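Subject: design request, 610 residues
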């Protein structure tokens, strides 16, 4: 019999969404507690927030969800930035500010996101990494509630959540913007789940498209609904005439593309099913309304079609509004940085797109690698950026410069490109001719997009300031730019001490209640392993179908990161028409090679130790 594990106490800098109250495990005794370890840069964490919403509603008087915010980037350590993110993403449960990652360590979390379930008596009964666990959690919660109601240890009633007041501003966390033909601007008002048309001054509200409440509905401007929309792409006239709408909108949390006819404000769904993508990579064209998408974040007209920054699965996709088809353009879904011919490249949450003036180059803000990348002549290149764990605010030669989670890009007529360096609160400029990076504006509030107008002005979407602002006319000149040699940062998670030589890596997977591994279309599991630096692994890198693998670690490399991607296909065990599910998780595990390190590394893809 396995010993029961008592849940460790909460430790952190403070709490949000509790009305100023600090919570303890004793305060929540009698409730089922679900701990969600997240960080607000992480798209997988944002997916989990949306997966938890129906569970919070269904089990509201018995379940308490606690968000444990354990930061990756330096900017995410700022308490004001965390408070803004909690509002931006509509988090409706208490959040612990785990700035020193103390609670993260106590619960032995190794990946964002990680979920832990604590029963009403204060024992940890389940732990799982990644997304896609809503159905398994629902079944587990049903079991726990029935068991503890029968024992008399479940106490129903209101939870500790206290909603904060929402300030009145014309925009609330705007995401992206485009210029319309008359000088007007169309802005995605993300936290208000709508689009806003502004006058040429960037301030006067002319109309709103969308009811302003989270949801999914086509129709007239005043009744249509979005869920945290982001990117907007204006179609060329010939494409708009055939398609029957003028702009395409990335309806991010609905996992859809929506078309908008500007004359009337009519909204229609043009791509996606509304289900989040959980499938396998293929190179086929699909009917646009039959294929699942995953958090489309930005859009650009390139290569005679709409290219989609598919942040949720670390890829670029394409959408043809004339043929009404869609497919994969670049990326394998591995979250990392690797250049080369399309589509066999690695990306990490691409979130911003812009096309060069000559149409040859597609600039990409690859946010989780803090990188500026570009597509040209069928290949992906990195202009600035070093990988998933290196970031900062450093100007100078591009191979030494650092960004911090950029979300937007804006191509300039001279061939250079501006970068919305979001977590540095800056606008940066990369000049391909000189191969250098400079800072043209700083002190901004989470800039998320850039609009280069027909008149040559540059507008910045300052998301956390809830406004659009203009760069000073001289900011783009050489005299107006500055060179910053700021701090270099590296994600500092506690490393796992491993011994050099042979190592057994085990991904522990147990199907959730009511599901079984599905071998009907071939092997049900897949494991891909790589390392940074590559020299860390002498043997064991590559792709296989077993979730356990023998690795050999190099004793000449003191530390590094093991990059592990695991997935498992399951189906419902007893259903007549069984639904299929794909569980997937990426880990970037910091490791340190020591003489007393261990020879086995277990990772939990999904474990239900109830």
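Subject: RE: design request

Done. Sequence follows.
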């Amino acid at each position: 019999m396995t010993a029961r594990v008592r849940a460790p106490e909460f430790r952190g800098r403070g709490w949000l969404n509790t009305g100023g109250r600090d919570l303890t495990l004793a305060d929540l005794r009698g409730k089922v507690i679900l701990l969600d370890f997240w960080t607000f840069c992480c798209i997988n964490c944002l997916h989990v927030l949306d997966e938890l919403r129906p569970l919070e509603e269904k089990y509201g008087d018995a379940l308490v969800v606690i968000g444990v915010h354990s930061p990756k980037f330096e900017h995410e350590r700022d308490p004001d930035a965390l408070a803004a993110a909690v509002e931006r993403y509509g988090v409706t449960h208490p959040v612990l500010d785990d700035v020193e990652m103390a609670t993260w360590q106590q619960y032995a979390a190794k990946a964002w996101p990680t979920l832990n379930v604590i029963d009403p008596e204060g024992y940890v009964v389940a732990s799982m990494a990644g997304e896609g666990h809503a159905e398994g959690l629902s079944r587990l919660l049903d079991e726990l509630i029935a068991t503890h109601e029968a024992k008399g240890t479940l106490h129903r009633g209101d939870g500790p959540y206290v909603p904060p007041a929402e300030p009145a501003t014309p925009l609330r966390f705007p995401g992206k913007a485009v210029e319309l033909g008359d000088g007007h601007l169309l802005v995605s008002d993300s936290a208000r789940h709508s689009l806003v048309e502004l006058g040429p001054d960037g301030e006067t509200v002319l109309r709103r498209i969308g009811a302003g409440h989270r949801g999914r509905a086509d129709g007239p401007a005043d009744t249509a609904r979005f869920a945290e929309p982001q990117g907007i792409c204006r179609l060329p006239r010939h494409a708009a005439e055939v398609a029957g709408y003028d702009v395409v909108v990335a309806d991010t949390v609905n996992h859809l593309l929506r078309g908008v006819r500007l004359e009337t404000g009519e909204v229609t769904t043009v791509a996606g099913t509304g289900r989040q993508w959980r499938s396998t990579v293929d190179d086929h064209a699909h009917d646009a309304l039959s294929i699942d998408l995953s958090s489309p974040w930005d859009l650009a007209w390139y290569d005679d079609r709409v290219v989609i920054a598919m942040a949720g699965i670390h890829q670029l996709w394409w959408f043809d509004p004339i043929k009404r088809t869609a497919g994969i353009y670049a990326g394998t879904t591995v979250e990392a940085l690797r250049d080369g011919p399309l589509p066999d490249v690695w990306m990490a949450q691409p979130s911003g797109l812009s096309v060069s003036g000559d149409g040859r180059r597609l600039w990409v803000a690859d946010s989780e690698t803090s990188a500026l990348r570009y597509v040209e002549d069928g290949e992906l290149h990195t202009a600035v950026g070093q990988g998933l764990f290196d970031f900062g605010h450093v100007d100078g030669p591009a191979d030494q410069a650092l960004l911090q989670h950029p979300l937007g890009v804006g191509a300039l007529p001279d061939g250079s490109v501006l970068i919305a360096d979001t977590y540095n609160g800056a606008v940066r400029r990369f000049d391909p001719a000189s191969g250098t990076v400079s800072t043209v504006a700083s002190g901004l509030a989470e800039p998320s997009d850039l609009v280069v107008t027909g008149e040559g002005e540059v507008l910045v979407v300052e998301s956390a300031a809830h406004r659009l602002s203009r760069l000073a006319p001289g900011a783009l000149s050489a005299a107006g730019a500055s060179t910053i040699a700021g701090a270099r940062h590296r994600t500092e998670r506690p490393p796992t001490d491993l011994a050099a030589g042979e190592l057994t890596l085990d991904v522990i997977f147990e199907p959730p209640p009511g599901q079984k591994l599905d071998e009907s279309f071939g092997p049900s599991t897949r494991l891909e392993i790589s390392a940074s630096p590559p020299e860390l692994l002498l043997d064991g890198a590559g792709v296989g179908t077993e979730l356990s693998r023998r690795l050999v670690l190099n004793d000449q490399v003191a530390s590094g990161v093991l990059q592990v991607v695991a997935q498992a296909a399951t189906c419902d065990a007893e259903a007549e028409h069984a639904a299929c599910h794909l569980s997937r998780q990426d880990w970037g595990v910091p490791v340190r090679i020591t003489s007393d390190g261990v020879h086995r590394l277990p990772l939990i893809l999904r474990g239900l130790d109830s």
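The longest helix spans residues 134-151.
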